[in-house]
Amino acid sequence: MIDDQRMSLIHAELDGDLSNEQRAALARLLLADPEARALREELRGLCGRLDAVGAIEPPPHLKDSILQRLPPVPRAASYRKASLGRWRLAAMVAGLLTAGTIIYETMQGPAPGTREISGTLAADAQTALDSVALDGGRVTGRATLYRDKTGLAVGLEVSASEPVDLIIASGGHSFRINGLGRSSPGGTKPQTVALTGVPMQGQDIELSFLSGERTVSRARLHAPSDR
Amino acid sequence: MFGIEPGPWGEILRTGLFRPSAQRRRRRALRNDQLFKGWTVIVREEDDPTLVQRCRDGERDAFERLVIRYQKPVFNVALRMLRNRQDAMDVAQTTFLKAFEHLGDYDPAFRFYSWLYRIAINESLNALALRKPRGELDANVADESPGPDRAAEGSQALQALEDALMQISPELRAVLLLRHVAQLSYEDMAQALGLPEKTVKSRLHTARERLRDHLMQDGSM
User: Do residues A128 and A145 lie in contact, with contact meaning Cβ atoms separated by under 8 Å?
Assistant: First the structure.
């Protein structure tokens, strides 16, 4: 009967996994023990037979049947790990903006009936400055530029066949909003984005809607000069 | 709800301008074909990490390259695990579909093929578990639907070896197949099986000995 340790030496030799010291130990074992020699030969023969098992060609339609059944690339899922950091950063920035707005509001005194809208705050007393219909195929709805006591804000009522990202750019500032147009049980919710730090200087505000980093729709809002 | 990031322009420039689209790459490949007509063109195959990254970028043709590269070994491992051509084909299909769907969960620190084999082995074990209630068919299923290739390959020795393989536990069979059919290293096997290397070695040794015992019992050794 060969013990486990000696058996391991025989297997390790078969796998090319022996150190010099183990090789010497195996040589001594094989010299001294005919049973070990016989077992080694049997296992060598067995491994030879296993290695000789030929590969069979898969059915010719296997590849096509796989490719036909592939779902559309689940982009969000594919980027789950990479986007974690991005979401963390986005949440941090959104938190800072919210905190900043709250501090500003507190310093300015109680504002008349403010309401919270999805991570940013916008005052109720709003004046519509410009409005544009979105009918760019994959993105529909309306974008409206407002002014309130805290500055400019963009109101969005967006429907999209799949969630889109929006870049709002004006006067060297840009904001990115991810996942617009997600369907919710109550239908599309209007959302308002406070354009913190964007002054009114008679400039244009560019809206670019992205799907998979490709621009699928554009719109432009005009902010009149603050006189 | 909102994710606001300052300065997205760098990202847009990288993806929009400097990275050629799949369509542009295909067009360029076509032009190259015409340009090098009559020449021997050495094409460097893209490695797995590059193809995986391209898949994650939404390029389905990169996944097609991975399917072409690995359909044969995955099918063969599943075939030897299940000993049934149709089941092996189903497992191979499911393996690639699951790999595609869960590409976002794949950790590039591991080898792609180890991950693929891991899915294939798990799917094969699931298929075997489902097969059990229909009766202990494992050893006989292959004879019911041998497929055209089996007749050509089937020597008596191979038949005996396959019979013996089906008599050891599926877990031990998986170790033997990854080592001797897929030719994986201990490290790759450990990744594929989610086990420490030491356990893999010990399981491989046990599997060989069990297989030898069965072959000796059958008089095939």
Answer: yes
